[in-house]
Amino acid sequence: EPEVTQTPSHQVTQMGQEVILRCVPISNHLYFYWYRQILGQKVEFLVSFYNNEISEKSEIFDDQFSVERPDGSNFTLKIRSTKLEDSAMYFCASSRDFLSSGNTIYFGEGSWLTVV
Amino acid sequence: DAKTTQPNSMESNEEEPVHLPCNHSTISGTDYIHWYRQLPSQGPEYVIHGLTSNVNNRMASLAIAEDRKSSTLILHRATLRDAAVYYCILGYSGNTPLVFGKGTRLSVIA
Description:
The complex is a heterodimer. Chain A is an all-beta fold. Chain A has no helices and eleven strands. In chain A, strands 2, 4, 5, 6, 9, 10 and 11 form a seven-stranded mixed beta sheet that branches. Chain B is built from no helices and nine strands. The radius of gyration of chain B is 13 Å and the shape is globular. The model of chain B has no long low-confidence stretch (mean pLDDT 92). Chain B is mainly beta. The A-B interface holds A 31, 33, 35, 42-45, 48, 50, 55-56, 91, 93, 98-100, 102, 104-110 and B 30, 32, 34, 38, 42-46, 49, 51, 87, 91-102.
């Protein structure tokens, strides 16, 4: 069964450093997403991406964050100048088409980011 | 935005059926009802979704009320592996992303 894969599974970084989290969405999917989950809290939407541009973003997704699809398979989340509160599990997800047309999102296993 | 209401937690005995309720009284006619679950230390996992009719798949069944203001996820025989947080989420118009609430934490007792 096709799946969303994420790397790294766990990264420890020093405060102020830049981090890039990588994802390979399911191959025939057109919509890509990043969510995050701070330990013990809800899964929070960050950003959605379609046709090489951001489709929706939440208030969390400020100038510190950026997303990119550098080639035909990878989808990345860059976090500049990391802060302690960026420590969380980051989930990549993808969907074949619009969610309103009955499609659904498939999530990766997550990248655990620890900022020290 | 249409929202959902779920019990914070439920408990089930192993090999018994489990009925997880969800209220969504402000649902609009085009909102799909999605169910996801999250096992400990894993990403959310798709379970099932539907619009108006009841749905069945290998994981579960989804029973949708006639007025669509509530739905029930049915696990036919709970196993220890089904212990997870279950989320009932409405899919809005266009491609507004799925918004997760707190869900229902299901405990399965051997």
